[in-house]
Amino acid sequence: MAPVPVQVADSAVSSPFPQSPKTTGPPVDQTNFLSDRARTTEIDGIRGLLPLETPDVVSFLAGKPNPATFPFGSITLNLKPSISGRPAESITLDGADLDHALQYGPSAGLTSLRNWLTALQERVHKRTPGNWTVSLGSGSQDLMTKCFSAVLNPGDPILVETPVYSGVLPALRLLNADMIEVDVDDQGLSATRLAEILDSWPADKKKPRVIYSTPVGCNPSGCSASPQRKLDVLQVMQKHNLLMMEDDPYYYLTTPLIPSYFELETQVFPNAGHVVRFDSFSKLLSGGMRLGYATGPKEILHAIDVNTAGANLHTSALTQGIAGSLLQHWGQDGFLAHSEAVSAFYKERRDVFEAAAHKYLDGLATWVSPVAGMFLWIDMSPAGITDSYSLIRTEALAKGVLAVPGQSFYPSNRKSPHVRVSFSIIDLETKAPEGFARLAEAIKDKRKE
Ligand code: PMP
After folding, report:
1. Phi, psi at residue 279, to the nearest 5°?
2. Which residues of the chain have pLDDT under 70?
């Protein structure tokens, strides 16, 4: 299964942005995107030497604990019958794989898993080997936090689509980042709005070099960008020399897959190197594993690895070992078949959930039906609601229903007529209809005010 171009919404409209021919070129040096601190910080003396340890070298380097003292003899994973139709089966982690999983390892992640993921990215995103690499993190959240500090100086501007995944706000606030809100439309990040902001940027103000977006099944808006929309955004990025942080944890939750920014950048940038992609295993294998991977220019990934070395040495090698043995066992085709089954699972849930929402909210609210992700972003302005926060804290709470007020997804904390509701895990038969009935009552009560 390979990604195929799809029209996600009504994006077949002709693009106002000129299209460049597909180009390839020599590797580029993307250190110009690094923060001052990232340019001057290196992995410490011990970790910096670890890659030089080869079987021919006598190494007195590391303070690795002696595995003879570890209690684990082997680890057997008992897999239940999978949603892609595989029978129950067992995989045992032992030998060299277990040794690597139990020992301190490289900051970028276990070599075998990185190689597996590199081959996956080459296939799925149609990228040839080049000046890009893959690093593991404790969830994509961990990698994004480290990337923000690798590319932003304190106080720097960064363009963020709004509403934005609220999980990135604490890291950006810690950096005192100047978050420039770029409002989404029904395809997420708007190239037109982005161009307007950048074309009229004041000459005396530091210009943003980085943009953050969740292009598929956006959390919270549920929108997805079509390939054409991504090309339009890439054109604006080219004009203004931007780096994209592509946060794509829902990428595999739609079928067919939508070509990513990481794939499409090769059509716009002669040397690519303008997209750092963040993938997550949370929605495909387990959220509690805390495993994600970043893919992008070597210079930026190295700066992320330096941050990992300083913060936590590396992502749990045991978790990587477990995921790696499962992925080796499945192979790429097995992984893609699993992802497709997960996507079908959520699509079925979305359909039932949305039917319940229509039953109770039609006439009071609207939303864009999501092709991926786990959320409906419900706009209650047709009912005259302007501040969902006060609705949730008073009328909705009184009726016994909770949803996330839109305000939480704006760096400026602006009032919003939206609420985010999730269909990932809620009981669809009874709880979802009951919740929507209560929300409708709450909206009507608010209207009476
Ligand atoms: N980005 C988005 C848009 C998300 O919704 C989430 C999880 N809710 C994350 C990143 C974090 O993913 P992970 O579990 O891989 O850290």
Report:
1. -110, 155
2. 1-27
- Do residues 297 and 131 make contact, with C-beta atoms less than 8 angstroms apart? yes
- Angle, alpha carbons 294-340-251 (nearest 5°): 30
By C-alpha distance, which of 356, 336, 377 is closest to 217? 377
DSSP letter, residue 131? S
Question: 204 C-alpha vs ligand 1 centroid, how far in Å?
Answer: 35
Ligand 1 probe mutation, 117, 136, 138, 141, most atoms within 8 A of CB? 141
Cβ atoms within 10 Å, residue 428: 17
54-88 per-position pLDDT tens digit: 889 998 887 889 999 999 999 999 999 999 999 99
Strands 210-213 and 243-247: parallel
Q: What pLDDT was estimated at residue 48?
A: 83
* Nearest atom (ligand 1) to Cα of 292: 15
User: Would you give the distance in Å from CA 166 to the centre of its chain?
Assistant: 12
Q: Are 181 and 411 in contact (CB under 8 A)?
A: yes
Structural contact between residues 205 and 197, judged by C-beta atoms closer than 8 angstroms: no
Q: Whose CA is nearest to atom 9 of ligand 1?
A: 141
Which residues contact residue 124 at a Cβ distance below 8 angstroms, ignoring those fewer than 6 apart? 2, 3, 257, 336
Instruction: Output the pLDDT for position 61.
Output: 84
Instruction: Confirm if 229 and 268 have CB atoms less than 8 A apart.
Output: no
Taking CA atoms, 427 is separated from 190, 219, 293, 303, 373, in Å, by: 34, 21, 31, 43, 17
**Long-range contact list for 404-409, CB < 8 A, 24+ apart?**
404/220, 406/163, 406/220, 406/377, 408/166, 409/162, 409/163, 409/164, 409/165, 409/166, 409/220
Measure 140 CA to ligand 1 centroid, in angstroms. Answer: 6
pLDDT value of position 7 = 34
Cβ neighbours of residue 208 closer than 8 Å, sequence gap 6 or more: 156, 157, 158, 159, 180, 198, 242
Q: Which of 135, 145, 161, 165 to mutate to test the pocket of ligand 1 (most atoms within 8 A of CB)?
A: 165
Distance of CA 365 to the CA centre of its chain: 28
Q: Which of 282, 319, 320 to mutate to test the pocket of ligand 1 (most atoms within 8 A of CB)?
A: 282
Q: Specify which residues 247 forms β-bridges with.
A: 278
Q: E strands of 168-247, at which residues?
A: 178-185, 188-189, 210-213, 243-247
What is the predicted ipTM?
Answer: 0.99
Q: Residue 96 in contact with residue 111, Cβ under 8 Å?
A: no
Which residues make beta-bridge pairs with 184?
A: 189
Element (DSSP H or E) covering residue 294:
strand 292-297
**C-alpha pair distances (Å), 203 with each of 54, 192, 195, 206, 429:** 52, 20, 15, 8, 56
